[in-house]
Amino acid sequence: MTRFLTVLTLTAATLLFAGCRFDGSDGENPEEGEIPFFTKAEELFVPRKDEEGKTLTVFKTNDKKYWTYDGMTLWTVWGEDSGAFKRRTVKTAKSDGYSAGGYGIVFCQGEHETDGKTVCAMLVVMINNEGQYILGKAYGGVFVDFGWWKTSPYLNRGTGKSNEITVDYDESKTEFVFYANGKEIERFRDEEEPALRNGKNGYIVVTTPFDNFPSTAVDVYFGEEI
What we know:
Blueprint: E1 2-4, E2 38-40, E3 45-49, E4 55-61, E5 72-78, E6 88-96, E7 103-114, E8 117-127, E9 132-139, E10 142-145, E11 150-151, E12 163-170, E13 175-180, E14 183-188, E15 200-207, E16 218-224
Parallel strand pairs: 2-5
Antiparallel strand pairs: 1-10, 3-4, 4-16, 5-15, 6-12, 6-16, 7-8, 7-15, 8-9, 9-10, 9-11, 12-13, 13-14
């Protein structure tokens, strides 16, 4: 299902893609000083090493510049394109913020030439604190979901409850495989050009109209071996 990325508000959880923006932007430019609805915000994702040597990345904000009446989608990536996608496992939890607001991982992120323009693309897996998940792809201002928000009994529900999410790639079947807490949940394919198989990894968090900034915050952590 294709959805144009003007302002997309989900009923099960808010996911906004508006003007996919990297170093440049697609679509209309924001007003001076205005942050796009869908924006790279690496300053909000703060990494540190934990006692086990894993990287713990903490996202936390109650800054009203990251809030709108339509919500905002904030993401980050790191490193270089290291070749073909490899299995990723991330332990994540959301300890503050609207329970249906999505958070999760991006992967195979990069830039691609289309009709003489450089546009950004990435694959997305998000969950929320209500036991739901969504899989999809953002490319050139369009979000294509590989199935609408679904509920899984294998996702832990509740504020602060941690979930281990894994994405793998089954090369023999050309399918990505999504796991939650060790259980296979769904397989999906990216077959539309550019079909993404490699790129950068990162994280994604949504602030929703139901988050009350600055009185409350959105607080998410991601633990991963990086």
